[in-house]
Amino acid sequence: MIRPNTRGAGVRLPLLSLFLALAAVLFGAAPVPAADADGSWWEPTARPAADSQINVTGAPFKGKDAQGKVRGFVDAHNHLMSNEGFGGRMICGQTFSEQGIAEALKDCPEHYPDGSGALFEHLTGGDNGKHDPVGWPTFKDWPAHNSLSHQQNYYAWVERAWRGGQRVLVNDLVTNGLICSLLPRDRTCDEMTAIRLEARKTYELQDYIDKMYGGPGKGWFRIVTSSDQARSVVEQGKLAVVLGVETSEPFGCKMILDVAQCDAADIDRGLDELYDLGVRSMFLCHKFDNALCGVRFDSGTTGVAVNIGQFLSTGTFWMTEKCAGPQHDNPIGLAAAPPAMAEKLPAGVSVPSYASDAKCNKRGLTRLGEHALKGMIDRGMMLELDHMSVKAAGRALDILESQEYPGVISSHSWMDLDWTERLYKLGGFVGQYMSGAQGFIGEAGQKAALREKYKVGLGYGTDMNGVGGWPGPVGEGAPNAVKYPFRSFDGGSVIDRQVTGQRTWDMNTDGAAHNGLVPDWVEQIRLSGGQSVVDELAGGAESYLTTMKRTEQHEPGVNLAAGAPASASSTEWWNPFVTYAPYRATDGDTGTRWASEWSDDQWLQVDLGAVRRVGRVTLDWERAYAREYRIEVSENGSDWRTAWSTEAGDGGYDTAEFPSQSARYVRVHGVHRATDWGYSLYEMKVQRA
């Protein structure tokens, strides 16, 4: 069962002969002593007789370098337990089984006898209508780099990735209620129920591995809930596993016909539960617009299918608008709807067309989404920016910047790259999607100067079991073909082709078919002329743990204006039951606001009660915002000086920073409106520099 955690507390091969493999299948696997039973800490004291090989020799590196930093790769986006989500029958095969590999690595029942019943596999194009469903011991057709419905994270394959240099893995607990409802299933489609199950199974996997190594705490797979725990695990040469959440309707926060199906109390309870499960990072939206935020679109045929799914789940299709800045969402595309999805639409309903110059989702971060983000900040959790629409991501970054909060991550290339410096400046972390070696190097090169500027390493997100597709084969004669055996990046281990049962995988001819081929992929990056990228990947563990530590150490700035007396040049009045008085902008309630009369020259000021040092003002604008305005300060309320000004206000969250100075009174003075209304502020915060 899941171990309850309190905040801040810790949670706590040579090739087998065909005869032995078949005997194990027929008569059951029994634990046998490891090949190296002389006390080498990285070898188990017992492993099932019938099991995958690791095909890595040599001691895993551990400790710190001369600068006191840890080394190792970071898989910032993986789905170890995806098979437990989506109703239990979308990803076929298990990460582990107490009954052994023959039970773990078998296909879904409806895929037998020839794969023709594999609806999701056909929909995603992995098998051309049929495939051999047999897994262990033959693995004729799966796992494969283009098969999106078969297990890629068998524990021994994860072990091989660790032995090849990976030291941090983020296990994103994932599901989607709508997809679950369209597929064969053997359990509920409730998303939070699936998240709880996947968390429990991750702890069970830790126990399963511990038993092979002699008891609790002795295995290489260590779930961590703090940066100090993670750093200790990495220094021991083991794998630190961080729990994350990536789901479409967290806390039941779906949206139906633009009406939220959750409230702030649901979000607070949900965040508390996730934190106590050990979750330390999460996405607020994924694939479908929800009550928290709008999503970054999928493109092409996939985008059309997801858009139909959005309609079936929410009652609305995606809505687009012209982007306000250089960032944009993915183009939706005009591909024909997949028949299996189109037939789910009501009669007379079809996917709308979209203007080519409207590339941004109209939906951004909602007020409930802001509440959730602030709740994550209060709990020291890291926000995953990927999958957020440009509008939502921009608003989220504004809020994070207003609080100087470093806990922000882009884990698998689903963020507009123009946000990268804002993320690094906050102290966040970036991982790229596990694309082909040349493509990965090309993407890394685009932001290499920024990584050098901010002295950060690079991560990757394999998205294994995540229905994304992975690097294909390059061919044995390719210039960057991996030459087996090869050495790990640190030189301490020798890595040969990976063998499971009767199947041998080769990166050159099979591509990245499963998690165990991550070391081979990294070697292909090196052979592609990317040694510098491999070096940056080796700095990924240190950078991720630095972001995690900064997040834990964050102390919110004191809002000197909270509850302070406020006055204004004017107040809008049109409803005797609602007040837009000045104090509404300092009451700490984002559901209330101050609003001025409808003219340009208007101001709102707060009295801090005494002369204080100030250097930062944050404004949360309603739709009626200022295009041109200035921040003014005064010690006596009569003699004002301009501390900061802009002629390019864009609404939303604005954070004005200026050299620290003395002031008792702080005023936002509107010069030109951006709308026909007046000026309107939900909240005005004043902080020290």
From TrEMBL:
Q: Which Pfam families does the record cross-reference, listed alphabetically?
A: F5_F8_type_C_2 (PF22633)
Domain of life, per UniProt, equals Bacteria
Signal as a keyword of this entry, yes or no, is yes
The alphabetized UniProt keywords are: Signal
Claim: Lyase is one of the keywords in the record: no
Q: Which residues form the F5/8 type C domain?
A: 553-689
The residues forming the signal peptide are 1-23
Q: What's the protein name?
A: Discoidin domain-containing protein
